[in-house]
Amino acid sequence: MTASPEWLSFPEQDTWRAFLQAGNLLTAQLETTLKTAHNLPLSDFEILLILSEAPDHRLPMSELATQTVLQKSRLTYRVTALENAGHVIRQSCPDDKRVIWTVLTEQGFAFLTAAAQTQLALARTHFTPSLQENDPTQLTRFCQRLIASLKTPPSASVCETPGP
User: Fold this and answer.
1) C-alpha span between 52 and 61 (Å, rounded)
2) Is-contact 104 67, C-beta < 8 A?
3) CATH 1.10.10.10 fits 40-122, yes or no
4) Which H or E element spans position 35?
5) What's the rounded Cα separation, in Å, for the pair 62 and 111?
6) pTM score, whole prediction
7) What does the pLDDT read at residue 145?
8) From CA 46, how far away is CA 109, in angstroms rounded?
9) For residues 120 and 43, what is the distance between their CA atoms, to the nearest angstrom?
10) Which H or E element spans position 149?
11) What angle do CA 106, 33, 111 make, to 5 degrees?
12) How many helices (H) and strands (E) does the chain have?
C-alpha cells in the first residue's frame, strides 16, 4: 500500500489554485490582446522586451534562451520570425565566431514601444487595481523567491513518486 501524499492545507490549496488561475488568465489575456492588436505572440514580446533592456539592445542567443526560458530550437524559430519582420538582426561575435548575438533594431524598438502601450493598458486595467498598499513589495519578494526556487535544480526526492 502506498503512503498518502501530504496534502496542502486548505489556505495553502486556496492560494495555490488562485495563483495558478490568475497567472493563466492574465497570460491568456495578454497573449490574446497582443496577438489581436499587434499580431505579436507573447513569447516574441518577451524577447523584444528583454533585448530592449540589455546593454546595446543585444544578447547572445544562449543568454536570451536562459532569460526567456524557451528551448533553443523554439527561440531560434521565434528569432527567425522577428528577423523576417525586421525587428531583430543576428550578428556574429567578433571575438568568438561560435557566439551569435540577437540585436534589437530601431524598427523593432518602435514596434515594441507600441506593443508595450497595449501591455501597460492591460496591466493598468486588470493587475494594478487589484493591488493594495503593501501588495507590490510583498508580491515582488514572493515572485523573486519563487523564481529562485524554480531555477534551482530539484533534488531527486522532489520528483520521485513513492513506490509501493
Assistant:
1) 14
2) no
3) yes
4) helix 10-38
5) 24
6) 0.84
7) 93
8) 12
9) 16
10) helix 135-151
11) 5
12) 7, 3
Q: What is the pLDDT of residue 159?
A: 47
Taking the C-alpha atoms of residue 9 and residue 17, their distance in angstroms, rounded to an integer, is 12
Distance of CA 42 to the CA centre of its chain: 8
Domain boundaries, the chain: 40-122
- Give every strand in the sheet of 100-104, ordered side by side: 58-60, 100-104, 88-92
Q: Which amino acid is at 115?
A: A
d(CA 92, CA 101): 6
Residues of the chain short of pLDDT 70, as ranges, are 1, 154-164
The residue type of 13 is Q
Q: Cβ contacts of residue 68 below 8 Å, gap of 6+?
A: 43, 46, 47, 50, 75
Longest dimension (CA), the chain: 63
Q: Which of 26, 42, 51 is nearest to 129 (CA)?
A: 26
Which cell goes with 154? 530539484
